[in-house]
């Protein structure tokens, strides 16, 4: 079942843009709602949020119940959790702060079984239906999980061409806030230097046939980057979306 979801997601993103939020909630119900609302994916965030491997397993289940593709963003030092979240059934992993080719190759190797990598082997896990799935089928199909590498700084930009040589990259994700900080314009994600750097990444990834993603928190920016070729659009964060809606209701009612 998981392999079918992965293949469907990869097929869809080749032909059109997909959209989904980051999620910091620990409540599976909210993840379910995101699927029923029509989001294509959700990024369950272990880097900036209170979740853990223990809590994220039920969020992955909730995503699959309502048909939203579960991606887990791991911490900046990802090696201790990469295999764990894939064991739990994450359809993809998003790894922050990739700055050079060896780092890219290392994380991909840790997320893949041989011959593509050296991920720790265990078939008594949720992703293998707790051993109900044929072991050889599982080890082969598990290597189809979506690999998303985040480039967030000037160093990564300088090493972009070599990073793109890594085998197994599905999506390059541009972190605009960290990129802006590294370029000396903290918080100014619409700064010309930030936008030109992002456009350079998009151009080089497109030449390699690699999908590009980024974070947006306005519809204007979502439309802009979609038009410029970004296909993996991370639209805001669950808590921010909830705050905006609550604030809007209060503001409109207080006007009367």
Descriptors for this entry?
256 residues; alpha/beta; TIM Barrel; eight-stranded parallel β-barrel; 12 helices; 8 strands
Task: Kindly describe this structure.
The chain is of the alpha/beta class and 256 residues long. The protein has a single domain (2-254), classed as Alpha-Beta Barrel (TIM Barrel). The chain has helices at 2-15, 28-37, 53-66, 82-87, 101-111, 135-141, 154-158, 160-163, 176-182, 192-208, 219-227, 238-254, and strands spanning 18-23, 41-45, 69-73, 92-95, 146-151, 171-174, 211-216, 232-237. It has an 8-stranded parallel β-barrel, surrounded by 7 helices. Helix 2 (28-37) links the parallel strand 1 and strand 2. The longest helix has 17 residues, at 192-208. The chain is globular, with a radius of gyration of 18 Å. The N and C termini lie far apart (51 Å). The relative contact order is 0.12. The mean pLDDT is 95.
Set out the fold topology.
Blueprint: H1 2-15, E1 18-23, H2 28-37, E2 41-45, H3 53-66, E3 69-73, H4 82-87, E4 92-95, H5 101-111, H6 135-141, E5 146-151, H7 154-158, H8 160-163, E6 171-174, H9 176-182, H10 192-208, E7 211-216, H11 219-227, E8 232-237, H12 238-254
Parallel strand pairs: 1-2, 1-8, 2-3, 3-4, 4-5, 5-6, 6-7, 7-8
Helix pairs in contact: 2-3
């Amino acid at each position: 079942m998981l392999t079918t979801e992965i293949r469907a997601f990869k097929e869809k993103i080749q032909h059109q843009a997909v959209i989904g939020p980051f999620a910091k909630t620990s409540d599976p119900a909210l993840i379910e709602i995101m699927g029923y609302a029509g989001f294509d994916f959700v990024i369950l965030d272990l880097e900036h949020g209170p979740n853990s491997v223990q809590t994220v397993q039920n969020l992955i289940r909730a995503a699959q119940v309502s048909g939203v593709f579960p991606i887990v963003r791991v911490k900046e030092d990802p090696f201790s959790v990469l295999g764990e979240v894939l064991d739990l059934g994450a359809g993809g992993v998003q790894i922050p702060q990739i700055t050079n080719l060896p780092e890219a190759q290392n994380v991909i190797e840790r997320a893949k079984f041989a011959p593509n990598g050296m991920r720790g082997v265990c078939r008594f896990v949720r992703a293998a239906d707790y051993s109900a799935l044929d072991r050889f089928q599982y080890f082969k199909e598990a290597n189809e999980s979506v690999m998303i590498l985040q480039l967030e700084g000037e160093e990564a930009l300088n090493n972009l061409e070599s990073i793109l040589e890594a085998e197994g990259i599905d999506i390059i994700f541009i972190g605009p806030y960290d990129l802006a900080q590294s370029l000396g314009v903290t918080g100014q994600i619409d700064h010309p230097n930030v936008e030109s750097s992002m456009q350079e990444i998009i151009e080089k990834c497109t030449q390699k046939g690699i999908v590009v993603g980024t974070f947006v928190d306005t519809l204007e920016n979502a439309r802009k980057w979609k038009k410029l070729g970004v296909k993996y659009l991370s639209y805001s964060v669950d808590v921010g979306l909830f705050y905006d809606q609550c604030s809007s209701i209060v503001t409109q009612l207080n006007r009367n």
